[in-house]
Amino acid sequence: MRIRRLLLPYINIFGFVAMVSLFGMARFAVAADPLGSWNEGAAKQSILEFVERVTREGSPAFVPSAERVAVFDNDGTLWPEAPLPFQAAFVFDELRRRAPLEPELADDPFVQAALQGDLSKLLAGKNHDGLMHVIGVTHAGMTTDEFDQRVNDWLATAKHPRFEKPYSELTYQPMQELLVYLRLKGFKTFIVSGGGADFMRVWSERVYGIPPENVVGSMWQARFELRDGLPVLVKTMDHLFVDDKEGKPVGIHQFIGRRPIACFGNSDGDQAMLEYTTIGNPRASFGLIVHHTDAEREYAYDANPQSSGKLTTALTRADECGWTVVDMKVDWQKIWSDPAGAPSEGVALSLVGKWLAEDIDSAGVIDLAQSTLEFSADGAVSGSSAVNRFQGQAKVDHNSCTFGPLAMTRRAGPPALMDQESKFMAALQRVVQYRIAETGLLFLIDAEGTDVLRFSKMEN
Amino acid sequence: MRIRRLLLPYINIFGFVAMVSLFGMARFAVAADPLGSWNEGAAKQSILEFVERVTREGSPAFVPSAERVAVFDNDGTLWPEAPLPFQAAFVFDELRRRAPLEPELADDPFVQAALQGDLSKLLAGKNHDGLMHVIGVTHAGMTTDEFDQRVNDWLATAKHPRFEKPYSELTYQPMQELLVYLRLKGFKTFIVSGGGADFMRVWSERVYGIPPENVVGSMWQARFELRDGLPVLVKTMDHLFVDDKEGKPVGIHQFIGRRPIACFGNSDGDQAMLEYTTIGNPRASFGLIVHHTDAEREYAYDANPQSSGKLTTALTRADECGWTVVDMKVDWQKIWSDPAGAPSEGVALSLVGKWLAEDIDSAGVIDLAQSTLEFSADGAVSGSSAVNRFQGQAKVDHNSCTFGPLAMTRRAGPPALMDQESKFMAALQRVVQYRIAETGLLFLIDAEGTDVLRFSKMEN
Predict the structure, then answer these.
(1) Which Pfam family, just one, is annotated for this protein (chains A, B) (predicted)?
(2) How near does any CA of chain B get to the CA of A438, in Å?
C-alpha cells in the first residue's frame, strides 16, 4: 500500500506545522457515480457487483484484463430500432437521393417498390429477395471509400422522423456510460450486431468510442482491385455472413476468437450470444437485456415491435439464465446521450478519465510532483495539486470548458510544491476552452487563446 | 517540458550541497536498442526512421495511435514455412495420431495418401481436393474447444524435423523485437496470414503477444449448437474464406476495417496487402519483405521454395514501391527467438517495458516519488530511484532474475527520498526470482521466496 511519507518530514522537521490548517484535513472520498444515468435498483446493482467481482484483485472470480470481452448488440441496445432500423432508413434515403440521378433505377421493380413504400413486395419470398436486392443496390458495386462517404453524407443530413435529430445523436446515455465504465475497468468492448459491419464502422469510434476492429456485423465479401495502379476494395454481394441469432456466437468466434464474459442485447436475435456468454462459461459471466418499456421517452415493445427487435423467448429465458432485465422506464433516469461536443450537463467522453499535468503556464512541472485532473462523465472533477486534493464541477459545452469553485484540502508541503499548487489552481480558474490534440494530449486554454495547461492521459 | 525543480531547493536552501558528489552528476542517456538483433544497415534504419516519422509529435507525417495498424504475415515472416508450413505438419501428425484410433480413416483414400506421403494425389485437381479433404478431417467436425486442445497437445509434443525444437519456439527474434517495438510506439499489431485463424489463435498471444482478436486468417464457418443445454461451436467446412493473395486486403477490410500503415510479409502471397498498405495511402506507410537468404541458419529460397513462400513478383515490385527488403543473412544478427521463460541472454517479453514500484519490503512507497525499473529485450535495465538514475544488466532465465552491478548517478535529495532510494537499490540486489501475476503486477522475490518488490506496468 502506498503511504504519504513524503510530507511528514516537512511538517515535523522543518516547522511547517503552523501552516497546517485545522480544517479540511480529511481526504475526500472521490467516487463519482460511473453510471449516473441509471436509477438505483437491481439492474444497476447487478452490473456494479459483476464488474467488482471480476476486476478486484484477489476475488475468486477475478478475470485477467485480456479476457474481459464485453459484447453489445447495437440496434435497440445502444440506439433505437424504431420505426425502422436506422440502416434501413439509410437504404430508403439513398434510393430517394439516387433515383433522380440514375435513370436506370426507374426500371428496377424492387427499387420502385421501395420508393413507393411497398414493403410487402420487398419482403415477399423466403429470402426477402426484394429487400436483399435494394440493400445490394445501396451497399455493393462501389468501393469501400465511396460507401463510407455515402454513409457520412447521410448521417450529416438525415434526421429521425420522431425525434428530429441526426441518427448518430440518438444513442442511449446509460449504455454510453456503461461502455466507458467497462473500458475503465479493463474490459474490451465490442459491437456484435445484425447490422452491416461496414455501415457501423464509419461512425462507431466517433459515436461509441468503439474502433472499427471491434465491430462485428453482417457482411458481404469485398474484392481487391488495382485501378490505374491504385488499390481499391469493391463491395460485392458474394458470400453473405448474417451476424444475427445463431450467427452471433459464430461471429464472435470468427472475429474475436474469445468467449465473452459480458453480453448486452435487447431481442431474441441476441439470445444465442447471451447463451454462449453465460451458460457453462468457465469464467464468471453476465447477461443483460434492455426491455423497451418507455413509450413516452422512447418506445415500448417486446413481442410486437414496429419492425425489428422482437423479444419473446429471450425474455422467457432471462430468469432461469440469471440475465438482468433492464426496465427502461424504471431503470434509466435519462434516455438520450449528449453527443461529444454538444451542449451537455456532463462532459465529452474524450475528456473522461484522469489526466497528468505536464506543463503549467509554459513553465514545466516538478518531475516528482504529480498534479492531476480527473473528469467524470457527469461533469464532476477532482484531482491533486501534488500536495492537496480538490473537487468540484466542470461545465463543458462544445469546445468550451470552465471550472466552478473547487473545494480543497489544506495540507502544507515543501515550498516548491506549494508554489506549483498555487500556479496549477490559478491556471484552472483561467480556463475557458479545451482541445484534445491528435497526439491525445489535452490542452486547457485561457480567454486569450493561450495554452495554460497541458495534460497527458494517465492509465486507469 | 518537465524540469527538475524539486531538488534545487534542498540543494541550495537546506544545505545538502555537501552531499552532492562531484562525480557522476550527468544523467545517463538510457536508450537501449529496441532492435538489438538487427544488424546496422538500411533495413533497420528504414524501420526506425518510419516509426519516428509517424510517431513524433509535430512530425508532418504524424499518425494518431488509433490508426497505427501494422499487419504481419506469419508463415515465413514471423516463423519458418519449411520444409512444410507448420500447420501442414499438424495435419499430417494428427492423421498419424488418429489413424490407429479411428479405423474408418483406413477407408479414406486421401487420408491414406497423406499417411503414405503421396502429395501428388493430395494436390491433384484445380482445387486440391485431396488436400482440402485432409485439412477438413483435421480441422472440422469437432467443437472449437476440442480443436484448441488438439493444437495445444500437438504443440507440446511435436518437433521441427531439422531444428528439433517445438514449433512455437522457432520464431524469429528480430521480428519479435519489431512487434514489441511497434507496440511500445502505439501501434496495434495484427497477424494477417493464409494460415487458419483458429489454429493460430490457440498460441498467438503466448508466442507473439498478439491476442486472438488481432489474428486474421483463413477460416471455414462454425455452427452454434446447444448440446444438453450447453453452448458449443462446431467447426464446419462451410463458406471457406482464404486469407491469401488478393484475399489479404479483403481480410484486413472485413476483420480490421482500417487500412494498415505498415505491412510485413515474405512472399507473393503478401503482395496485395503490401500494395493495399503502401500505394495511394493518404497516411505515411511502410512495406517490408523478409528475403530468406540464410541456408545455414535457416533457409534460402525465393522463386523455388520447398513448399509455400514463393517470392518473385513481390520482390520485383519492391524497388518501385519503396518496400524494404530484409536480407536475412546480412540484416539479422540473430535468427531465433528465446521463447519467454526459456534460458536467454535477454529477458522474457512479458518483462520488457517500464515498471513503477508500488511496494518495497512491504513498507509501501512515497506517494510522490516514483521508483522505476525498465527492462529492455536485450537484458539491459535502467530506472530511477526517485532521486537518481541507474543502469546495468539483468540476467533472466526461466523464472529466475538477478541484477548485475547497477551504475548510478549521485544526486542528493530530501532524506525521505534518499531513504527510499537505499531501500529500493538494496532490495533489487536481493532479487533472485520474478513472477508476473494474473493482474499484470510484477513481483521480484528474494532467496527466501519473499516478495521484496512489487511493480505495476507504466504506460509507454
Answers:
(1) META
(2) 6
